[in-house]
């Protein structure tokens, strides 16, 4: 993306695959905007023969799937929340901190920034985002701009109203609220009011991550009593990828359902890459600031300092990052607890902090300086994602002493952050066999005051690299059912390499289905609407409806067409699995038709007594046709 | 496969993809044969630097992965069990029933067999298996050749000994038997003795499916107290596939781990296809005889008769089918219970029987004639797989009245079969949301006397066609944990079309990882050995070992090489996910090396008091180097 071609920057229709981003509606879906806040959703229209209204589904894809939107990734998205933020009157404009070469990993030969500046090479050939704002927002002195602060003062913000409408979309279709699930003590309401959202945020049981400098974001909530959310990870590494790929992956990930995206870049051009991403993202963006801080000291963990870290927090806060992963629980006394582990410390941030602590023989500066970090968070409304630096990276290490020691510290820090009305979520494992998953949820609820839990899987076995989206999809579905609020995806490339865009899609769809399976099991009152609509379409051979209602209509149709591509097959009452004679759904329909022709309601068609009386008569009818049947009525006598 | 080229029939090395079957070792594995019965397994050799012995793993791939075996699919596999069967002296040779055109779906224009014979077209161009035996075995008059019969008479057969060795393979590596799991009351032993196998089979809690006419099979057990097993489905349909593809899929499926295979063909050449499959299968083969019976009556369910069905049972029994799915629980009074369902009856066999029952207004002949079916089963040692014809095919229908009514009947039939010492397993659902899964297991255990449970998934949501191997992998892992003995795979093509060989592999590996996750969670004493070995290899950057220990070494290596293909990368201490600076595993090793250099055991490196005393001194060291550090010891004072 050295020089961005404006035509490419305006997006590529969904059928294209040139550099740029994928635009255009998802097959079968129509973008709608609901209510005075014009909350974005999708409507799936069904065939008239179904007699069913359109099904509305939650939508994370942003303006990219809106055919009326003008997409220009060089300009970024519209600032949806701008007026709401300013109307609160508690922010001021400040000059943005100047971007330095080391922010983009540019260091001179002696690894100093000045050497890089002298060499005149800003950023190794990558174009900075062309429309960087010269001023950014920050809380006025003494103000706290976090949604939790407003919520605790009884204020219902437009963001909370947006969330309520978004979370309600399915419920409006229900005529009655029946509950069929096991939520393990969650408090999922029949109907989500803005007041309910306010109360959940005030309690800390939900967060609405949205930095005042990310006005492009469509507000969303992460919390046990809302729909289970998923996160996709993007970002380059020193070995692979570039800015164009990362923006493309962002848009691709949200197209398929990612509720938030983390930019985990660890390579070059971290600052500029992030700017392109945030400006073009309708979903909250998370980061792990320690990565960029490490780049600034040339990769030498021991050289990290509080000042560099603090400066990095400001840099990223001004760009608009919505949540920071902070590994403040990797405390010096805990590090030796990992000595006997099979896979030690698998978290990048955790291992960096562990190295720093041991090298300096000092307590973690993230822990020591936590209250100062909190002051920064509240000036921009950035949420904490308290990192699980000591999470288990193998089945052998699951639920060990190191892991839970850190969890207890995260609980302590949650309450410290809440004293300042700063939003918090808690990161979780990892690799955990199924029988140990619930313990994680129970402990986290107990220790962290019901702050939202945000797990990575967990993977339920180590033996299937190449399939870790599945080994972890199992654990994710289960821990989502038990109460986890957001599930961080895992792609097929986990443990093996950096994911490409196909891997991103596979990871996202896998985690969407896991999150939905959790919603169903929790008894979310509206979750089942989509399953039922799809199953009715399946039963009635409305193939297009079945595809359009599914999480990935393109793949569903493609798989069907591999063996039955003809257009006529889309209304055929069979598929290639069984063919026309054996299709059980077709036969079931014949059974129902037959029963109906007998002019009896199928339900009462064969009451036990009637059956015995009638069977002999009916058998006689058949015998008259000359067919020989060895059939007994009730097993007692033969005709 | 109209004329089989003998060279192709001898197999194709694993790198090939020409018509034929895939042979050659699985990457990194070495075939071994253990004990006096030469039980087949695989050994995975690890790099010398690991200091670890080879890891033995359970192996279903048969002689195809044995480089010393001579493969000739025109001759079939060696008759492993031949002498054991004959030595029992309770079988006699009989002339095989003659194959008729209608056995291969050949009917004349008036749908009669004679017309087909007159037309001289035996089987539409497919070559019958060239080495069909002219005589087959059957129990002598009055004898019962089922493994359950022997077990109940206190006899330990060679089959039971084989099973014990196979199930023990990992346990021999354990120095101690620690249990870490939750088995919900299962009785998994520390060590599997042949006596334990006998007892489980005698109780009906496990089955060893092996027809006396399938002597090529390597004995295996299906039961809650053994390793969780998986089944793969193959078979053509009227719309797709051919014999060559099906034999190839068989060998491909067992290569990747299928413990049994069901031939669900519903198209042409059912008899000949099955002969090719059984003669070349080292794993038990299951079928659903009603499919072939339906083909014989030209697809008209109402024309099915007991005689045709019985004849089909004999035909298939003589070929060597090891278990039959019999939908004897689809009883006439239950059919109306499906009327209100969203997806009616989704089982092919179930819908066929429902159609028959309603058309004739009679009780199912499978139910009425059950005892006569049992007489056939015991003459060949064929196990019942009591079919779940009324299983739910959508989330909406899960755990409904029809489903459990059938389950109660299956319980009744289990006890009737056991009266005759005939082996039984029970088929299960289907589509079940997570919160309803355990109820299925609990009811089945209660009602069916702990007969092994054999479920299809279950799928935990309906909304992801194209990904149903995953929606069902979640449910399968969970129900396997709860006690299900065998999991029937689901491929990405479920609901959309017939699976190809890639789909077969994806389905098999998905179900292998789900079964293994279940073994881990149940606390199988040896399951964790493989996870631990792989995680150690991962941590030590023994990339080749990591790939070789995984369920799919080819894919793991391929994914790694997509971004780091160079040979040197196979020993590199990073991959493209994070690159050299950020690899947490590399950093963890550095942390351990650093701690070791301090000449202190890492475990006691920083005891709390020592830390406080030592920190000030260490900080002083760093300060002397001139670096400015705002670091506090314990957060209280700055140097």
UniProtKB/TrEMBL annotation, chains A, B:
<feature type="binding site">
    <location>
        <position position="495"/>
    </location>
    <ligand>
        <name>Zn(2+)</name>
    </ligand>
</feature>
<feature type="region of interest" description="Disordered">
    <location>
        <begin position="94"/>
        <end position="129"/>
    </location>
</feature>
<feature type="binding site">
    <location>
        <position position="291"/>
    </location>
    <ligand>
        <name>substrate</name>
    </ligand>
</feature>
<keyword id="KW-0949">S-adenosyl-L-methionine</keyword>
<keyword id="KW-0408">Iron</keyword>
<keyword id="KW-0862">Zinc</keyword>
<feature type="binding site">
    <location>
        <position position="583"/>
    </location>
    <ligand>
        <name>[4Fe-4S] cluster</name>
    </ligand>
</feature>
<feature type="region of interest" description="Disordered">
    <location>
        <begin position="1"/>
        <end position="29"/>
    </location>
</feature>
<keyword id="KW-0784">Thiamine biosynthesis</keyword>
<comment type="function">
    <text>Catalyzes the synthesis of the hydroxymethylpyrimidine phosphate (HMP-P) moiety of thiamine from aminoimidazole ribotide (AIR) in a radical S-adenosyl-L-methionine (SAM)-dependent reaction.</text>
</comment>
<dbReference type="Pfam" id="PF01964">
    <property type="entry name" value="ThiC_Rad_SAM"/>
</dbReference>
<comment type="similarity">
    <text>Belongs to the ThiC family.</text>
</comment>
<feature type="binding site">
    <location>
        <position position="327"/>
    </location>
    <ligand>
        <name>substrate</name>
    </ligand>
</feature>
<dbReference type="Pfam" id="PF13667">
    <property type="entry name" value="ThiC-associated"/>
</dbReference>
<comment type="pathway">
    <text>Cofactor biosynthesis; thiamine diphosphate biosynthesis.</text>
</comment>
<keyword id="KW-0004">4Fe-4S</keyword>
<feature type="binding site">
    <location>
        <position position="575"/>
    </location>
    <ligand>
        <name>[4Fe-4S] cluster</name>
    </ligand>
</feature>
<keyword id="KW-0411">Iron-sulfur</keyword>
<feature type="domain" description="ThiC-associated">
    <location>
        <begin position="28"/>
        <end position="92"/>
    </location>
</feature>
<dbReference type="InterPro" id="IPR038521">
    <property type="entry name" value="ThiC/Bza_core_dom"/>
</dbReference>
<dbReference type="InterPro" id="IPR025747">
    <property type="entry name" value="ThiC-associated_dom"/>
</dbReference>
<keyword id="KW-0479">Metal-binding</keyword>
<feature type="binding site">
    <location>
        <position position="578"/>
    </location>
    <ligand>
        <name>[4Fe-4S] cluster</name>
    </ligand>
</feature>
<feature type="binding site">
    <location>
        <position position="454"/>
    </location>
    <ligand>
        <name>substrate</name>
    </ligand>
</feature>
<feature type="binding site">
    <location>
        <begin position="347"/>
        <end position="349"/>
    </location>
    <ligand>
        <name>substrate</name>
    </ligand>
</feature>
<dbReference type="InterPro" id="IPR002817">
    <property type="entry name" value="ThiC/BzaA/B"/>
</dbReference>
<feature type="binding site">
    <location>
        <position position="262"/>
    </location>
    <ligand>
        <name>substrate</name>
    </ligand>
</feature>
<protein>
    <recommendedName>
        <fullName>Phosphomethylpyrimidine synthase</fullName>
        <ecNumber>4.1.99.17</ecNumber>
    </recommendedName>
</protein>
<feature type="binding site">
    <location>
        <position position="431"/>
    </location>
    <ligand>
        <name>Zn(2+)</name>
    </ligand>
</feature>
<feature type="binding site">
    <location>
        <position position="427"/>
    </location>
    <ligand>
        <name>substrate</name>
    </ligand>
</feature>
<feature type="compositionally biased region" description="Low complexity">
    <location>
        <begin position="111"/>
        <end position="125"/>
    </location>
</feature>
<dbReference type="GO" id="GO:0070284">
    <property type="term" value="F:phosphomethylpyrimidine synthase activity"/>
</dbReference>
<feature type="binding site">
    <location>
        <position position="233"/>
    </location>
    <ligand>
        <name>substrate</name>
    </ligand>
</feature>
<dbReference type="InterPro" id="IPR037509">
    <property type="entry name" value="ThiC"/>
</dbReference>
<feature type="compositionally biased region" description="Basic and acidic residues">
    <location>
        <begin position="94"/>
        <end position="103"/>
    </location>
</feature>
<feature type="binding site">
    <location>
        <begin position="388"/>
        <end position="391"/>
    </location>
    <ligand>
        <name>substrate</name>
    </ligand>
</feature>
<comment type="subunit">
    <text>Homodimer.</text>
</comment>
<keyword id="KW-0456">Lyase</keyword>
């Amino acid at each position: 993306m050295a020089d961005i071609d404006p035509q490419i920057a305006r997006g590529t229709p969904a059928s294209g695959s040139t550099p740029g981003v994928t635009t255009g509606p998802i097959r079968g879906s129509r973008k709608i905007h609901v209510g005075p806040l014009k909350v974005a959703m999708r409507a799936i229209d069904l065939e008239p023969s179904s007699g069913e209204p359109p099904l509305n589904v939650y939508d994370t894809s942003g303006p990219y799937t809106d055919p009326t939107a003008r997409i220009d990734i060089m300009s970024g998205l519209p600032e949806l929340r701008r007026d709401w933020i300013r109307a609160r009157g508690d922010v001021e404009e400040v000059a943005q901190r100047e971007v330095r070469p080391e922010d983009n990993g540019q260091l001179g030969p002696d690894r100093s920034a000045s050497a890089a500046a002298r060499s005149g090479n800003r950023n190794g050939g990558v174009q900075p985002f062309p429309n960087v704002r010269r001023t950014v927002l920050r809380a006025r002195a003494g103000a706290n701009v976090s949604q939790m602060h407003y919520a605790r003062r009884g204020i219902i913000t437009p963001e909370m109203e947006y969330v309520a409408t978004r979370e309600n979309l399915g419920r409006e279709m229900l005529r009655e609220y029946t509950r069929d699930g096991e939520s393990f003590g969650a408090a999922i309401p029949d109907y989500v009011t803005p007041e309910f959202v306010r109360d959940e945020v005030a309690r800390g049981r939900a967060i609405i991550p949205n930095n005042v400098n990310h006005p492009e974001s469509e507000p969303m909530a992460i919390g046990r009593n809302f729909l289970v959310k998923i996160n996709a990870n993007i970002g380059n590494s020193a070995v692979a990828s570039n800015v164009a790929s990362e923006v493309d992956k962002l848009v691709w990930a949200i197209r398929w359902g990612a509720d938030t995206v983390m930019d985990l870049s660890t390579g070059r051009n971290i600052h500029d890459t992030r700017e392109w991403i945030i400006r073009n993202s309708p979903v909250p963006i998370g980061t792990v600031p320690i990565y960029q801080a490490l780049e600034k000291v040339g990769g030498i963990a021991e050289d990290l300092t509080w000042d560099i870290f603090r400066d990095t927090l400001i840099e990223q806060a001004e760009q608009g990052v919505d949540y920071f992963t902070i590994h403040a629980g990797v405390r010096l006394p805990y590090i030796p607890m990992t000595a006997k582990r099979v896979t030690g410390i698998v978290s990048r941030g955790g291992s960096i902090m562990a190295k720093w602590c041991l090298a300096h023989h000092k307590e973690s500066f993230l822990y020591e300086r936590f209250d100062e970090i909190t002051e920064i968070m509240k000036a921009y409304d950035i949420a904490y994602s308290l990192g699980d630096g000591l999470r288990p990276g193998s089945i052998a290490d699951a639920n060990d002493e190191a892991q839970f020691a850190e969890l207890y510290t995260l609980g302590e820090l949650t309450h410290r952050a809440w004293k300042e009305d700063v939003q918090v979520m808690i990161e979780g494992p990892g690799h955990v066999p199924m029988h140990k998953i619930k313990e994680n949820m129970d402990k986290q609820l107990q220790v962290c005051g019901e702050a939202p839990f945000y797990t990575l899987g967990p993977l339920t076995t180590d033996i299937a690299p190449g399939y870790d989206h599945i080994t972890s999809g199992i654990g994710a579905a289960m821990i989502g059912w038990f109460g986890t609020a957001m599930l961080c995806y895992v792609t097929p490339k986990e443990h093996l390499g950096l994911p490409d865009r196909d891997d991103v899609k596979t990871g996202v769809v896998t985690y969407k289905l896991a999150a939905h399976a959790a919603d169903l099991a929790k008894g979310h009152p509206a979750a089942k609407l989509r399953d039922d609509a799809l199953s009715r379409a399946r039963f009635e051979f409305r193939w297009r409806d079945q595809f359009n209602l599914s999480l990935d209509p393109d793949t569903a149709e493609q798989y069907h067409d591999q063996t039955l591509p003809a257009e006529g097959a889309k209304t055929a009452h069979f598929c290639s699995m069984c063919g026309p004679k054996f299709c059980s759904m077709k036969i079931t329909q014949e059974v129902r038709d037959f029963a109906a022709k007998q002019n009896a309601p199928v339900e009462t068609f064969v009451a036990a007594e009637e059956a015995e009386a009638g069977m002999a008569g009916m058998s006689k009818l058949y015998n008259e046709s000359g067919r020989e049947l060895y059939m007994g009525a009730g097993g007692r006598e033969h005709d």
